[in-house]
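Supplementary Methods S3. Input chains for the assembly prediction are listed below.
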Amino acid sequence: MIVKDKVFKLLYDVEKPGRYIGNEINIVKKEPEKVDIRFAICFPDVYEIGMSNLGLKILYHLLNEREDVYCERAFMPWVDMQKKMQKEGMKLFSLETFTELDEFDIIGFSLSYEMSYTNVLKMLYLCGLPLESKKREKGMPIVIAGGPCTYNPEPLWEFIDVFVIGEGEEVILEIIDLYKKYKFSNMAKEEFLHECAAIEGCYVPLLYNVGYNPDGTIKSITPVSENVPPKVRKRIVKDLDTSYFPTKMITPLIEVVHDRITLEIFRGCGRGCRFCQAGVIYRPVRFRSAEKVVQYAKELVENCGCNEISLVSLSTSDYPNIDEIAREILKFAEDKKVNISLPSLRLDSTSLDLLKEVEKVRKPTLTFAPEAGTQRLRDVINKNIKEEDIYSTVKLAFERGFQNIKLYFMLGLPLEKDEDIIGIYTIAKNIREIYKDIGLKKKVRITVSTSFFVPKPHTPFQWEAQDSIENMQRKMKLLKENLKRVKDVEYNWHDFYLSKLEAVLSRGDRKLSRVIKRAVDLGCQFDDWGEFFDFSRWEKAFWLENIDWRFYSDRKRDFDEVLPWDIIDTGVTKEFLKKECLWAYESKTTSSCFERCTGCGVASFRGGICIGK
Amino acid sequence: MANRYRFYFSRDLPAAFISHLDMTRLFERLFRRLDIKLKFTQGFNPHPKIVFILPMPVGLCSKEEIFEVECEQELSSDIIDSLNKILPEGLKMLKVELATDKIQVSDMYYQCFVEAEEEFCKYFDEFMKKSPIINKEKEGKVTVKHVWNFLLSYECKKVEGNIKISFHINVVNGSYVKPEDILREFSQEYNIECRIVRVERVKVGYKRVI
Ligand code: SF4
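Predicted structure tokens for the full assembly:
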């Protein structure tokens, strides 16, 4: 029986069968026999999450633009489906043609968050492929991976043949050209990998040796031969206007997490928060022109039919004349009952007006991310939000009928003192008082959420220690006790152990690949899903591999320690990161790229706003 | 002036696995793509007035279903063709009419195909003779339905390796029994595994009311 029929027979008693049927609006249909290369984009989470990812959709359509390539998609089946597939002896299949994934030429994983690493391995298992790159011979798919997590590729080094570092739009096409040469000749896999390593932005872990010091830190990372580059430089798209963007975008039939059209208005962030990895790796800031944004918005609404269009970026307010653009889009969107959403808008009185005007559908919720409770600590992290501004915006917002305020903070930041934690309480208390003073009848809801600081590679805080679990617990309790005294405040905190594991995996080295494999064998999957995450299994995996996880999370590094991700060159220099870290210790702030260039090093890419600074 | 239109369509695999809510959203999107203005509800979260006469459980195929939709404009006759060009595989529009009356469902014909053991029909007939009852719990409330209060007739027979069970079901005061529920009740009571491979509504009878 063909795979498609087999799949459909399973769908009568699995949860959300719509996940497995493909068939979406704007899906690309081709005849697999008529292409040279079959490419499977894999997202290591369920359909609803994967299909909310813009990068995946861009690559899907970009690859399918090529006549010689057919790109299809696969997601992680939910556990009920996994069980049924296993029982029937079925392998992971693609949603376009229901082809088993081991029949593809290239399998490409999108690595968006560290907590999906176990799912990556699980998906390889479901494909029936050997996990290790070394064991996959010519004739088996080449496994590549891209996405923000590849900026520290080491924890998955054994399993991935080629990591794509940076924006994949161009690299991926170069890899495919090379793959074609490999497929239709007697080129050996080793030779293919060597040639891959020569493509800028490709990291082939097998071609590097890592040496260790007696204390477990890294001594050296060296290429196996002279023609393998000593560092892998990330790739960027220089100009968003001329780069590819699909407007006939695949649109799910079932409700997904972000059930709307997403249109990227700019890439990168010029603000330089010292804990933020996205702020570093996506540098420099590159704006898409207003004409293109409006034109794409129009085409997307026409082609996808969604009732909401979201203008995304890391910090929407930094787009020049965002209000003009939003109003321009509103002109045709309103008539079609399409709502515009503007996430990551910095909130002040002007943006409030804009929000009121364009976001008609949404329940009015105001979101602030001051991240830290006092100005001193906000200066440490270089987060440029003033308390007075929050208060004045909140006051305006209350007067205009907003009832829900959400506040995001981080606990455990470097140099944090208890008074910074009390500062969070003070902010919540003051907001509640503003509300009381205005004397409104409606109920207010103030939500305070805290996550725990996770030191990330390539950030000024990459050398910092993360708080111990005990410390996290104490701080959370301190805040909780204090917030109890404020009316109408709800407090949520992020799971300690999840933050811990994230810290371990994001700064991990090659030794972790064995641990991840153990974890999968012990049953770990969907670690990002509260109901599945089980830290004790991970502890067991570490114990079995004789590794202390605290070495990765709770340890402060020296500036001159060789870091596992030193092999990756983001364009931002280590000197800059170090300077930023030292400035943090002195609570000295750095201005944003929009005010002046502070010489991070990324200007060498000759793209975006750095030119002319 | 808003017009209410009645659309007839069929649904087969793979679209049969789209949930009821997702069907509504899908049609909203398709109409928007065709630039057809629907009538929306008022309030914070406006949604178009698309109403399916019968809910379609996930997995159900059907030869003919109906939804009604209120439009802010008059529809031209090529709407069926335009929709069919952009509908996902499995869905097909059959016809449209201006709805001046109201309709109610009177009865339905179902066909279920299941994979089961040889003797299935024998046991099933035995089960059906005993005037079976279906207990359903939803949010703490238990509803009890006597199958034969809703069932007009049924037939169980073997076809091409599968078992085919046909049901003719009566709708009484807007309520009916689902064939899947009858099958589940049976397989629990008799401890016989029956794996559904297709459920299809082959015909629906309507009453027109003014
Ligand atoms: S080079 Fe200058 S302007 Fe460009 S990202 Fe770095 S600091 Fe900002």
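Residues A 270, 283-284, 593, 597-600, 602-603, 609-610, 613 surround iron/sulfur cluster (CB under 6 Å). The interface with chain A takes residues 13-15, 17-19, 21-22, 25-26, 28-33, 35, 38, 40, 44-46, 48, 58-59, 86, 88-90, 195-197, 199 of chain B (CB under 8 Å).
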